[in-house]
Design a protein that fits this description.
Number of domains: 4
Strand order of the largest sheet: 5-4-8-2-1-14-17-16
Bound molecules: zinc ion
Distance between the termini: 51 Å
Shape: globular
Radius of gyration: 28 Å
Number of strands: 36
Oligomer: single chain
Mean pLDDT: 89
Length: about 650
Amino acid sequence: MKRFLFIIPLFLLSLLLYTIEPSRNSSQTIKNDFESQNSYVGNKNRNISTGYKIYVDFNPDKKLLTVEEKIIWKNLTEYSTDEIQFHLYANAFSNNETELGKKFGFDESERTKILIHSLAVNGIVSQFEYFQPEVYNPHDSTVARINLDKPVLPGDSVLIDIEYELIIPRGRLRFGYAAGREFYFIAQWFPKLGVFKDGHWICSQYHPYTEFYSDFANYDVIINLPTDYIVGSTGQLINVVISDSIKSWTYSAKNVIDFAWTASPEFYVQTKKYKSNFGKDIEVNFLIQPENKNLIDRKFKAAFNTVEYLEKYIGEFPYSQITLVDAPRTANIGGMEYPTIITYFTPLFSPIETQRPESTIIHEIVHQYFYAAVSSNEVYEAWLDEGLATYLEAKILSEYYGNPILYFRFIDYYPIYGISFLSFREIPLIYSLKAFEFEHSSYALSSYYLNNEIGSIRDTSYALPNRLSYLVNAYSKPYLIVQVLENYLGKDEILEIISEYYNKYKFSLVTADDFLNVLKNYENLDLEWFIANFINGSKKFDYKISSIAKEESTYKIFVERLEGGIAPTEIAVYSEVDTTYIEWDGTDRWKIFNIESEHKIIAAEVDPFRKNILDINYANNSYTVEPKYWASLSIAIRWFFWVQNSLLIFGSVG
Ligand SMILES: [Zn+2]
């Protein structure tokens, strides 16, 4: 009986595949398409369970997408399921009561909704049942399921047909058009399968701050639009065919976790080949806004530098092409990553010392490794890819560009080197024009200081209580934590760990435990203290030298641990002629170190090489027998700079 159950759905499916009557192409074409798709979907070795075939007509006058989407999903797991779950991310913009809408508030031009015209599973008319897997909200229709009459058994396939329309909204968050420009960025635009894993669907709502999670799939997408439009997209351009006034762009993307594209008649296009260390040519395409042509060389350099660095230290670039899209300011897209296509924003006045747009280009290219190839759940564990992307961005910037110079923006526009202490309506009133160089970690440190109270980086990302806690726990803190590990182990070692993680998990779905296992197994080092205190823990760090007392020839150095976080450390004891270093495991709440010294001891410092940059108060780490006021004043001023120049960077980078 069991065998019959197994055979009948397969028979029906193959019958369906042969009898499907597409509205546009001949049934023979569709049949051939799906036959070729079947040859790679469900291939156990590549572990790809899903194929998408999408035809989209784009009408710029109406800002309308008319879409036919066919999904074939083969259940490659050992579990059966009686439902299929879908993301309908674009519905997040349908009203101001969705999880996204409540936080951001969309005006009329920023709203849209997926308008389903037909939906069928294996040829049988079906319905989406909207539900909210994480946060109950009947106004949120970003996730839906189809309840199946018969379960999809291991090895079975289903074919889903969806026809829908979607109006492109004015760009607000990652998706939309740029007001006043002919620029469209199309992301989170199609009904997309959740991830079926261990017998459960993982299919998150569109939450306000977090990004996405999906399985690897193959995409064949045909985009039809007016002939004057230029398209950039995930995947490889297969061909471009012109008929009448319509240009059809055919793309194929294998083994990717998402599909996004852009269109504009205004793009200035330049393509260069990068010779990969691994023997392939990587096609680097820049789609530039005409007013930003002058920065083209800097942009190519940033992209080439990034790929060079990543291939040298981490591993082979995962794709053979990448498209970098210069998003106009009014698109409100900022920096965002998709497989083989990324966006960034070009500030109009952008001297090289500001390292923009370089920093965004670098960050988003790093995401091709950590997000696109090694793919984690950004809704639950946002720190995993963002922490590594932010850390590697800083490494690449300092390797090729050195430290940035602190600047503020005059009328939100012109960068001026120095610090604005007080401003009114973006006009600085009290400022300094001194050119201060600062460390790449300063931005992250300043945002960490602003929010070192809330949670650990392992807290569920979408549930974090506000944007600041999300930015700190997803970007700043994990980056600083990797930097702490570098300070303890060395840069080559940390890059080796990241490289091992990448090469082990390239083109697979990962969790934080996969990363931690690589860490735990690295060179038999005992890193449990690090994982417990920095990654899993949420305690703060603050070590202090409280006093130095002299009793006869013995100096008593009194050291305290003021907060809960524990990190092994060193104490430097400075005499008039030399420096002595004492190792300390940092565990006790306080400890007195007795030092015999024939020379006069003038100062002591805990963590003198500043390995633990998460120490929340570095001013108390040193103690001078005869106080030097200037030193502490200089620390206080630096502190102020950091806090003033806080979240600028992370606010607009995905
Ligand atoms: Zn990012």
